[in-house]
């Protein structure tokens, strides 16, 4: 046996396995997406280094016992059942680190991150500030605006305004011109999002968005058909950016079905872009990551208008989709990190002192 092999053997037997609590599911519309991500992470974590317990959070916000969690991960959805959140968090004190693989509201928006912080449990991903600001599209726009990161023109509206003065909201939308996008401020996976081609489609789009959130954001189109490019960021205070990837699809925009139905979209990594554009996008991704005080991981999405050369930041996702075929792991694989290496690195980052 070589010296290196002997050393690895000693390390693997002398170091106790880290106890990891993996949270999945949640109360948002992205419940099933989270469970898919969790199955991939569970399969990738090295059993000789980590003792992993998975807990599914039902759509009612109850935390399922491990025995029920195993069944639900196979089925793909948990509508009911489970214990109170505080009971399960109290039981989590013996874990070394938590991987809150939860997407959308009540998971990715700082709520669970605040609970884990109060419990004194290290966790993968951004803290309360980065998670909450990153989830809220309006607050993200305001922060990025303050640091000078280019974005599409936008407006905001509240449900109470829409009920009280609908014409005022219509007038505000008209300032952006058409087509435009109408989105709930706090949803992911394009849930509740509409592309509005003219004023006649606006009311229905606003009604849909307000069913998902009390605040909505209205966004001008970046170009007639902008290219959608994405970057993965990994790290804490000294993050790195992955190669740039591009999404191509036939639908009018990257909606829920296009994101999650096989064969509806194509990922190109690296994106066929001029070198200076790729470098600019990577720089902006890290700048945005730092501006929001993110940690661990984020996927940063941009629009690129190849006619003008303009790059505009669209969104930042602090807990992106995490199946083996999702964009974020694919971007980091292009950077040289395999899926198991990426998951391991995220746990290491969670345990770093910041």
From TrEMBL:
Binding-site residues for ATP, renumbered to this chain: 137, 181-183, 189-190, 219-228, 314-315
Domain ATP-grasp: 141-348
Keywords: ATP-binding, Cell shape, Cell wall biogenesis/degradation, Cytoplasm, Ligase, Magnesium, Manganese, Metal-binding, Nucleotide-binding, Peptidoglycan synthesis
Signal peptide: none
Pathway as given in its UniProt record: Cell wall biogenesis; peptidoglycan biosynthesis; Glycan biosynthesis
One example of a Gene Ontology biological process annotation: peptidoglycan biosynthetic process
Cellular localization per UniProt: Cytoplasm
Coiled-coil regions listed: none
Residues at the catalytic site: 30, 189, 326
Reactions this protein catalyses: 2 D-alanine + ATP = D-alanyl-D-alanine + ADP + phosphate + H(+)
Record's GO cellular component terms: cytosol
Binding site for Mg(2+) 1: 301, 315
Role of this protein: Cell wall formation.
Protein family according to the UniProt entry: Belongs to the D-alanine--D-alanine ligase family.
PANTHER family xrefs: D-ALANINE--D-ALANINE LIGASE, D-ALANINE--D-ALANINE LIGASE A
Name by which UniProt lists this protein: D-alanine--D-alanine ligase
Organism: Deinococcus radiophilus
Gene name per UniProt: ddl
């Amino acid at each position: 046996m070589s010296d290196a092999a002997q050393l690895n053997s000693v390390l693997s037997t002398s170091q106790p396995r880290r106890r990891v609590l993996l949270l999945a599911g949640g109360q948002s519309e992205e419940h099933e997406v989270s469970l898919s991500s969790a199955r991939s992470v569970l399969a990738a974590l090295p059993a000789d280094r980590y003792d992993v317990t998975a807990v599914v959070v039902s759509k009612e916000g109850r935390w399922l016992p491990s025995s029920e969690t195993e069944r639900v991960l196979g089925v793909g959805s948990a509508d009911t059942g489970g214990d109170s959140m505080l009971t399960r968090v109290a039981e989590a004190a013996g874990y070394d680190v938590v991987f809150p693989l939860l997407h959308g509201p009540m998971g990715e928006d700082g709520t669970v991150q605040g609970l884990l912080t109060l419990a004194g449990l290290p966790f993968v991903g951004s803290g309360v500030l980065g998670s909450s600001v990153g989830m809220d599209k309006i607050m993200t726009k305001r922060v990025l605006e303050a640091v000078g990161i280019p974005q599409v023109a936008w407006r905001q509206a509240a449900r109470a305004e829409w009920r009280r003065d609908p014409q005022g909201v219509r007038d505000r939308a008209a300032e952006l011109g058409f087509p435009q996008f109408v989105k709930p401020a706090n949803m992911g996976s394009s849930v509740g999002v509409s592309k509005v081609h003219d004023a006649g489609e606006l009311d229905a789009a606003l009604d849909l968005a307000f069913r998902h959130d009390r605040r909505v954001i209205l966004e001008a189109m970046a170009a007639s058909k902008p290219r959608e490019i994405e970057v993965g960021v990994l790290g804490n205070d000294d993050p790195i950016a992955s190669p740039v990837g591009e999404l191509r699809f036939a639908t009018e925009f990257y909606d829920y079905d296009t994101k999650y139905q096989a064969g509806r979209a194509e990922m190109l990594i690296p994106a066929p872009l001029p070198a200076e554009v790729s470098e600019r996008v990577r720089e902006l991704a890290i700048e945005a990551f730092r501006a929001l005080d993110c940690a661990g991981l984020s996927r940063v999405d941009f629009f690129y208008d190849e006619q003008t050369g303009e790059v505009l930041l669209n969104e930042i996702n602090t807990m992106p989709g995490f199946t083996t075929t999702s964009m974020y792991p694919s971007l980091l694989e292009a950077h040289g990190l395999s899926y198991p290496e990426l998951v391991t690195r995220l746990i290491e980052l969670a345990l770093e002192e910041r």
